[in-house]
Amino acid sequence: MRGRGRVWWRLVVAGVHEAAAYRLALLGGLVANVTFGFLKYGILTATVAASGGVVAGYDAQVMSTYIWLSQGMLGSVNLFGRTDLSDRVKNGDVAVDFLRPLSVQAAACLHDIGRGLFALLPRGLPSVAIGALLVGIALPSSAAGYLLGAVSVLLAIAVSATTVYLVAVSGFWLVETRGLQVLYMVTSGFFAGLFVPVGLLPGWLQVAAYSTPFPAMMMYPVDVLSGRVAGWAAAGLVAAQLGWLLATVAVGAAMTVGGRRRLEVQGG
Amino acid sequence: MTGTSSTEHGPAIRTEGLTRRFTRREGLKRVTLTAVDDLTVTVDRGESVGYIGANGAGKSTTIKMLVGILVPTSGTATTLGRAPLRERVALVRQVGVVFGQRSQLWWDLPVAESFRILAAVHELSADDERSRTEELREQLELGPFWTTPVRQLSLGQRMRAEVAAALLHRPRLVILDEPTIGLDVVSKQRLREFLVAERTEHGTTLLLTTHDMGDVQRLCPRVLVVDHGRLAYDGSLEGLSRLVGAQRVLVVDLDEPAGDLVGIPHTNHLGSEAGGLRQRLAVDSDATTVAAVLAAVTDRVAVRDLAVEEPDIEDVVRRLYSAQRDPTPPPSY
């Protein structure tokens, strides 16, 4: 087991180092995050003000917290649907992944988790800090709140990696997954609560959102970390994230087995 | 490692009736293409085999089935005593593969880090990792670019790093698909010398696909030729050249134009240029030597310069293909 642990750790570290390889790109990402954050802030606080100070339980302070936490997570969770793996399936380089004595699924997901964790440093924390300093946010008051929040953020990054893996391996059947990536991008943005909190969506759309793994990638950890949802309800959200993680891992494993039998290795 | 005891013996590779068809859509029609057709072949442990054939003859498809990344349509492949698909993880612990056009290194990371990850992937002990990495780094001269990100390497540097990466875990079977593609003469030579040394020292089985005659000549006592997915030849390279009548050719430049140099023992006059100033003689290497032929030529005319042309791999394969489709006896002397 020691050997297995070492290889998984190495893959996470590799993801971290790869993410760190393009520093200017990280800076660009941060600038985009913050700019978009102020845009969201302008629109959503206006919405709160227009509805008399509170909308769907969000006052100006809670809304600001939601905005900066969600902006902070944007660099770490994949709401775009595109991965290295989907390119590798399309051009056939995935053959090399199958030549390693590893689970292809675990290797790809851990690598993405490493990238996501790293992005918290140059993109996540600065986004939150800028928001906190310039417009103010609410954060947990107890250590337990932070701890549960941290677990929730970690699970969000993991669910995002295991879900986007499903898009990539659907390439074993589709080869070109760009259409699916666009569908993923459009859906995930709304359902994860990137543009507005899921609670602001009409009821039927909320039902749709909660029946996908997307809220587990952003809305849940933001709710837990901001303290908007606390106590057992917060634990329930973390449990839901865990459920989505297990479900997406199981589907991904089945798709990997099925896909391998169809694999034709594009490009000779 | 566990569970290897049952796979210590028996051939490195055995295929029986191995077949793979691909279905392609061309407009409204579905076209079936047979990439590998009823291939039955055995490669013993420690052998070094050149696997050659024209583009699209089925070489890469065979390799993919041997290592479990492609499912055969019918027939079986057994590699190092294992079923490649079912026992993929156990098998790839003992196999090293280089696909010339695909990288197994981490594009954005330094070469050194790729090796650290691969050492972890193959669960090498810390001591083993250190000594083996050092050995490969030295022999393949990876030192100068050891800390360079892979995306910044030249093709020659990357190929050396790729081969080293495939050999890090001391695989028993090494499969190289066009390993010298795009390399300059010096890099090719260095890589071949390394592979010879590696085989001598560790008894590694080597399967090599290539378009380069030099690779086969220096590395592979045995040659398999595939044509349209079928095994067209299995034997030595010399035997292959003999079979298809692709001989070494002695080209002589003369001081003065002369008549055709016919009747030199064990040669076949192929042609004359520049009014007889340059003449080409095919040499039957089994019956004579180039030196003896040259002596016989200089008895008759004054030779100013000479060159010996080795048979070209494409030419050999082409001749073999056409000989099998249109059976005519090989040329006689």
Short description:
The complex is a heterodimer of chains A (268) and B (333). Chain A is mostly helical and 268 residues long.
Summary tags:
heterodimer; A: 268 residues; mainly alpha; globular; B: 333 residues; alpha/beta; 6-stranded mixed beta sheet; 4-stranded antiparallel beta sheet; disordered N terminus
Question: Please, could you describe this protein's structure?
Answer:
The complex is a heterodimer of chains A (268) and B (333). With 268 residues, chain A is an all-alpha fold. Chain A has one domain (2-262). Chain A has helices spanning 2-20, 23-50, 60-74, 84-91, 94-98, 104-134, 143-169, 171-174, 178-191, 203-210, 219-226, 231-262. The radius of gyration of chain A is 19 Å and the shape is globular. Chain B has 333 residues and is α/β, with parallel strands linked by helices. Chain B has a domain at 247-310. Chain B has a six-stranded mixed β-sheet, sandwiched between helices. In chain B, helix 8 (237-244) packs across helix 10 (313-325). Chain B is globular and about 70 Å long. Chains A and B meet through helix 1 and helix 5 of A and helix 2, strand 5 and helix 3 of B.
Q: What is the topology?
A:
The complex is a heterodimer of chains A (268) and B (333).
Chain A: H1 2-20, H2 23-50, H3 60-74, H4 84-91, H5 94-98, H6 104-134, H7 143-169, H8 171-174, H9 178-191, H10 203-210, H11 219-226, H12 231-262
Chain B: E1 13-26, E2 29-43, E3 48-52, H1 59-66, E4 74-79, H2 88-92, E5 95-99, H3 111-121, H4 126-139, H5 155-167, E6 173-177, H6 185-202, E7 205-209, H7 213-219, E8 222-227, E9 230-235, H8 237-244, E10 248-254, E11 267-273, E12 278-283, H9 290-300, E13 303-309, H10 313-325
Global outline of chain A:
globular
Class by SSE composition of chain B: alpha/beta
* Overall mean pLDDT of chain A: 91
Low-confidence stretches of chain B: 1-6
Helix content of chain B: 25-40%
Distance between the termini of chain B: 57 Å
The biggest beta sheet of chain A reads: none
Main beta-sheet annotation of chain B: 6 strands, mixed
Side-by-side strand order of the widest sheet of chain B: 5-6-7-3-8-9
Main structural class of chain A: mainly alpha
Greatest interface (CB-CB under 8 A), with counts per chain? A-B, 27 and 32 residues
Count of beta strands of chain B: 13
